[in-house]
Amino acid sequence: MGSKVSKQLERRKAISTEKKTLCDLNGSCRQDFPGSDYRPSDRKNWMAGLNPEKLHINQIVWPGTHDSATNKIGFPFVTRPFAQCQSLSIYQQLVRGTRALDIRIQEDRKVCHGILLTYSVDVVINDVKKFLSETQSEIIILEIRTEFGHQDPPDFDKYLEEQLGEFLIHQDDHVFGKTIAELLPKRVICIWKPSKSPQPKAGGPLWSAGYLKDNWIDTDLPSTKFDSNLKHLSEQASVSSRKFFYRVENTVTPQADNPVLCVKPVTRRIHGYARLFIAQCVSKGCADRLQIFSTDFIDEDFVDACVGFTHGRVEGKA
């Protein structure tokens, strides 16, 4: 018992130290970067505002959400605080400016996070289609994967093609060098990551798992996550030569050996440092690798930071 208490005290001290490390870095470093002062006049149509004829797919810093469809996961005030990573619906996230979604499902086509379930994936698809019907030039990266420990839903690839067929941008390496205008009226890059079912085929309407990569660091230590994100990003090729999407997640996650297990107070340890991260990417010479940048509980400033840096790239400043 005593060793367990001692270990928890050490963990709390480590968290406190790392929170101070990030806070001190934030106070001592500039947070400006090319486009940092840019604010989209309409977040719902921010890609349209950057000129679809000029904006290339590989120039975009995609504001993304982690565990996107968890706004109604589990039971309120009981299990929800342990698994909820977003408070907004998929439609509300897209209106706010989110353009990369992370959806986890299980065998019954219900969205899940670990063992906890929420609504059917139909809700996600309908929200996506509603948003697409109200906009003209916004491209979405829709990642759907079978959650770890679950089985693939039967014929799910056919379901996605039936539901989104008219919007699907087919798997093609040339997409990365194209402008948004060159891809329209197609609007969705749908990456399907099954557990055991065959991967989508080259040239088909769905994209295979290798087209969206990341280096997930499972920790609740904010400075450790921040520094690891920078390290792994620096090891990637530039977006101008890369033929896959690479994601960095501005999140930290609850750990079983720490008494704080609710998502929001844990992820808050890093949430406010998105602008600092982009500025550090510029300072350390790896800003040309930044692509999908995701977060828990996405807000307007996070979107504005991603859109602003995208604007800096379009203007040739980044």
From TrEMBL:
It comes from the Eukaryota. One of its GO terms (biological process) is lipid metabolic process. This is Phosphatidylinositol-specific phospholipase C X domain-containing protein. Residues 51-193 form the Phosphatidylinositol-specific phospholipase C X domain. One of its GO terms (molecular function) is phosphoric diester hydrolase activity. CDD domains: PI-PLCXDc_plant. InterPro entries: PI-PLC_domain, PLC-like_Pdiesterase_TIM-brl, PLipase_C_PInositol-sp_X_dom.
